Amino acid sequence: MPTQLSPEVLALIAERFRVLAEPARLRILNVLLEGERTVSDLVEETGLNQANVSKHLSLLRSSSFVDRRKEGLYAFYRIADPSVGVLCEIMCGRLEKQAFEQSAMLATGT
Fold this sequence. Notes:
Blueprint: H1 7-20, H2 23-32, E1 37-38, H3 39-46, H4 50-62, E2 66-71, E3 74-79, H5 83-108
């Protein structure tokens, strides 16, 4: 039987999902799942402007989804919370299954 979560814990969980509910942040996380990047790399790979990338990285960092290390003049960002990849795999798998089911329904006309 699942453990009953307190309203405070549920609020914390909801806040973490709110952070992930922004497509631009998901784009950034998707790139970072491939490995460490600088802000310039993220700007180039996501198509977002530097101000947006920096703003989103700040929120992702304060929420402990990403971490940063400084090397000279550069800051390198990486995934700090491995559950990000797990969540993405779960959601992508669910979307893939849903698309397959919808395609099968269209093919059979039901």
